[in-house]
Amino acid sequence: MTATAPSAEQLEHSHGEFGTDRIGRFLFWVAVLFSLYQIATAAHIVNLPSQVLRAFHVGFLMLLVFPFIAQARDAKPLFKALAWLLALAGVAVALYQYIEYKPLLLRAGDPLTIDIVFGVIALVTVFAAAFVLMGPALPIISGAFLAYCLLGQYLPSPLNHRGYDFSQVIDHMAYGTEGIYGIPIYVSATYIFLFILFGSFLERAGMIKLFTDVSLGLVGHARGGAAKVSVISSGLMGTISGSGVANVVTTGQFTIPLMKRFGYRAAFAGGVESTASMGGQIMPPVMGAVAFIMAETLGIEYYEVVKAAIIPAVLYFISAFWMVHLEAGKYGLYGLPRAELPSAAAALKKGWFLILPLAVLVYLLFSGYTPLFAGTVGLSMTVLLILGGSVALGLPSQVLRFIFWIGLGIVAASFFRYGINMILVAAALLIVANVFMEGGRKTLIVCRDALAEGAKTALPVGVACAVVGIIIGTMTLTGVANTFGQFIVSVGQKSLFLSLILTMITCIILGMGIPTIPNYIITSSIAGPALLALGVPLIVSHMFVFYFGILADLTPPVALACFAAGPIAKESGLKISMEAIKVAAAGFVIPFMAVYTPALMLQDGGPLAEAIGYYPAVAYIVFKALLAIMLWGAAVIGFLRTRLAIWERLLAAVAAFTLVASLPITDELGFALAVLFLGLHWYRTRGVTEQKPANQ
To answer: What integer pLDDT is reported at residue 5 of this predicted model?
Structure first.
């Protein structure tokens, strides 16, 4: 509860302990209860009105955040008392929303004095939670928007508005579904929390080890193998966690020391892990929390967002993979001896069952089921696998185990016909069986800890969703987004490229101080409609700001992912950030290419698709993007077959730049410069051969 900036670990809460004293144990069980509540509402075991559902979600967040931060920082008794006061105030707001639900609906727009009091308490607790979790940046930005609601009538035109009463602003922000309890908190209370739990259970079941072993077996022996393992394992972890900092502090514990051991500079090792981990937010099927908010905001199916993200996500990881390949070549860094590496096939053979929930999740998402349904099924399957695993090990023969797994599979499949009740009965029976099985109690502890860990990981996401609702509420109340949007449109009418640059800079500047979720919501609210007016497809414009919101977490001076990697790499977060920008450099061109040729995001439209057809346009733009990535990588790292001369790096950079736009003359020039660069480099380095160590 002090004013000092929180560490990356405190921000993310993806590791660390509740504490072993009485307060710590209490908070631990509150976190477990929070997760059980979320599961119960997602599975419709408990049915609440949407407003109450959101209010209870925020109430749980407030109850956990303040005492937990006070515990983590070992605050003085006065601050701990204040933390509990704020926590109980947050709970009181949730209970008030529940008790007064129907009366509040009847007097909507005409609040009583007590309504205003509880509304102010709601705003104070949400702002305070954001401050203690994330520092001052997001509360200051949201506070500026709130002040605009109250005082904007005194600003000069065109920034001014007609003016709103204090009671009207509080009513708009603290009640209904436009402010704190808007779309972001609804998504946090449903999809996001469920998928965080899904990832938490899979991690506890051994998914990190599976992904790491598979990555080591596939590329551990190759040039720069240690860094390539980081890229692949972090990308795979991103498919289930969707959280950049969580990836850094989980997979990074293994990959960063591994990279340092094999010769990578500490800053570069941290930069690789940070870049790869942040890519988890755009890696289907789970992606990051923003993807769910985007689907809800645009009113489209989640798989449409996944479809738009898939090619850019693959290109992002290809670019990171290419960068570490070039860095390894530049400094002569080779992989591990094959004899020391695990077998990818053996790892899959041993842990293949862990892939089942993920495979089912992908199938359901692409079959048109809602993310809430798909996440519930995925989580249910994961829980049954974990609980069933220890029961199966306790059976006396292989035949009985085989029969047991078939029966459990039939029970899991019955979800589609009979709903969640069959799963609940099966889970209850498995819990009872685990109590009496050898090793079963340890399995139950794993499940209990996964519930607590999931709730803890959800804290910064949920609080960010609550406080950013104030920004959305300001935009819906005052229409201020139109003013900024008109400015972007006016710039874009002269140059679309300048509008995109302006939007990118806005995303990166905002991202230096606030998480990806509020960054996306602010910039998409302002830039999304403006870019649409300039002819950019709506989902492409939203993916554009989403992409740069992610990259903002790699840019100094904040660069949260990089500072999370700092203690692991034993290097300055700022130095890691500079290396991360280098590794992600090729990725900066992908969103621009998608705007000019929407086929890169599998969207209709754009002059290229009209000229040569949709599928040829997809193939062409993917090839062009790969070529641009290759050129950017060579220019930034300064290596291809051997170290590049300055003039070669400049030539490669110019060739890559001209390939970004989709104008015929620039494409022709870009291809010509690429051929010239590759031809001259090959001629200069003819006869050069790569020297490999004998153990490869």
So the answer is: 35
What's the burial of 472, exposed, middle or buried (CB within 10 Å: 0-12/13-18/19+)?
A: buried
Radius of gyration of the chain (CA): 26
Q: Which of 164, 89, 88, 168 is nearest to 124 (CA)?
A: 89
Q: What is the dihedral of CA 645, 647, 652, 656, to 10 degrees?
A: 150
The residue type found at 430 is: L
C-alpha–C-alpha distance, residues 386 and 390, integer Å: 7
Place of tokens 């209850």: 428
Q: H helices within 13-76, ranges in order?
A: 22-42, 50-72
pLDDT tens column, 337-359: 777 778 888 888 888 888 888 78
Q: What DSSP line would sit under 608-659, residue for residue?
A: HHHHH-HHHHHHHHHHHHHHHHHHHHHHHHTBSSSBPPHHHHHHHHHHHHHH
Cβ neighbours of residue 599 closer than 8 Å, sequence gap 6 or more:
606, 608, 609, 614, 617, 618, 620, 621
Q: What residues have CB less than 8 Å from 463, skipping those under 6 apart? A: 61, 65, 126, 129, 130, 133, 134
Confidence class of residue 32 from pLDDT cuts 50, 70 and 90?
very high
More confident residue, 567 or 113: 113
Question: Using CA atoms, how far apart are residues 262 and 219, in angstroms rounded to an integer?
Answer: 14
User: 561 Cβ partners below 8 Å, 6+ apart?
Assistant: 244, 245, 248, 274, 277, 278, 553, 554, 580
Instruction: Report whether 505 contacts 177 (CB < 8 A).
Output: no
Model confidence at 514, in pLDDT bands (50, 70, 90)? low
Burial 179-217 (b: 16+ CB within 10 A, else e): bbbbbbbbbbbbbbbbbbbbbbbbbbbebbbbbbbbbbb
Tell me: cis bond preceding 518? Omega within 30 of 0 counts: no
pLDDT at residue 62, as a whole number: 94
- Cα 669 to Cα 75, 623, 635, 656: the distances in Å are 62, 16, 17, 10
Whether the Cβ atoms of residue 219 and residue 308 lie closer than 8 Å to each other: no
- Determine if the pTM surpasses 0.85: no
Is residue 604 packed enough to be buried (19+ CB in 10 Å), middle (13-18) or exposed (0-12)?
exposed
Instruction: List, in sequence order, the alpha helices (H) in 479-612.
Output: 480-494, 496-511, 516-533, 538-551, 560-569, 573-584, 589-596, 607-612
DSSP code at position 109: T
pLDDT in tens, 145-198: 899 898 888 888 777 888 888 989 999 898 888 889 988 888 888 877 888 888
Closest CA to 462 of 146, 172, 55, 52: 55
The predicted structure's pLDDT at residue 617 = 86
Backbone CA torsion sign across 653, 620, 547, 320: negative
Report pLDDT digits (tens) over 585-601. 767 788 888 888 888 89
- Give residue-wise pLDDT tens across range 84-97: 999 999 999 999 99
- Provide the H-helix boundaries in 279-301: 289-298
Amino acid at 671: F
Q: Which two tokens stand for residue 389?
A: 């695993």
Residue type, 10: Q
Closest CA to 242 of 183, 302, 186, 182: 302
| 661 token code pair | 């736009």
- What pLDDT is attached to residue 512? 64
Indicate whether 636 pLDDT > 50.
yes
pLDDT tens digits for range 358-406: 788 778 877 777 777 877 888 888 888 888 888 887 777 888 888 888 8
